[in-house]
Design a protein that fits this description.
The chain is of the alpha/beta class and 220 residues long. It has a single domain, classed as Vaccinia Virus protein VP39 (Rossmann fold, 3-Layer(aba) Sandwich). An 8-stranded mixed sheet has the order 6-7-5-4-8-9-11-10, with helices on both faces. The longest helix has 13 residues. It is globular. The protein starts with a strand and ends with a strand.
């Protein structure tokens, strides 16, 4: 499918799949969305303990680099697993301006390393940030009680409804430890009902710019 780099509302870039009219991040602001959904309402819940994170849709690596920067600032230890069935090319990565937008020139090599390290191998990106990239379909995930936090950042239900079903959320529920949390930008009623059906406690929270609400689900 045809892809192109576009600029979102906050000046940060993302990848658009033209055939779907779908983007990897919000057109209202890629960086703003990542901070609001995954850091403010996800990572910030974990203060003094090592955090094991599963990202559904590693994509451009934006959520991973922001998490690494936050881990460094807060002295958090992060074990980060990014699952992606269709990895972004290094040519596309070179056109993204996240380091500039994050005012993180000193971390340019960290972002580059995230994309260049081997898949299927755990890599030390920073002393307190381990990254494992898995090339895998989301339905093939078999982890059990492994993660504290899931960043659910799949393409939207409009273009890939099969990723927002009870089947998928049961896989996510099983992958989380007790009291583990899943956060996503989505807020559709059908998504919330699917989460509830597999056992999650679900909260509606204020959404990022351009969205009224988002969802946070907790495994009790």
């Amino acid at each position: 499918m045809k892809r192109k780099i576009i600029t979102t509302g906050d000046g940060s870039k993302t990848i658009q799949i033209e055939d779907w009219n779908e983007q990897y991040h919000s057109i209202h602001g890629a960086v703003q969305e990542a901070y609001h959904v995954f850091i403010k309402h996800g990572l910030s819940l974990f203060k003094d303990e090592p955090v094991s994170i599963l990202e559904i849709g590693f994509g451009t690596g934006l959520n991973a680099i922001i998490t690494a920067l936050e881990a460094f600032k807060s002295n958090l230890t992060i074990n980060y697993t990014g699952v992606e069935a269709y990895p972004v090319s290094l040519e596309e990565v070179s056109q993204l301006n996240y380091i500039e937008q994050l005012n993180a020139k000193e971390s340019a090599d960290v972002f580059a390393k995230m994309h260049k390290v081997e898949w299927e191998v755990s890599n030390t990106i920073l002393p307190n940030f381990q990254l494992l990239k898995r090339k895998q379909d989301f339905l093939e995930i078999t982890d059990k009680a492994t993660y504290n936090l899931i960043y659910f950042d799949a393409f939207g239900a409009r273009v890939q409804p099969e990723l927002w079903t009870e089947t998928v959320f049961k896989i996510m529920y099983n992958a989380l430890k007790t009291n583990g949390v899943l956060v996503t930008y989505a807020a559709k009623g059908s998504v919330r009902r699917a989460m509830l059906a597999v056992g999650f406690k679900v909260e509606r929270l204020p959404g990022p710019p351009g969205k009224r609400e988002m969802l946070r689900a907790t495994k009790s």
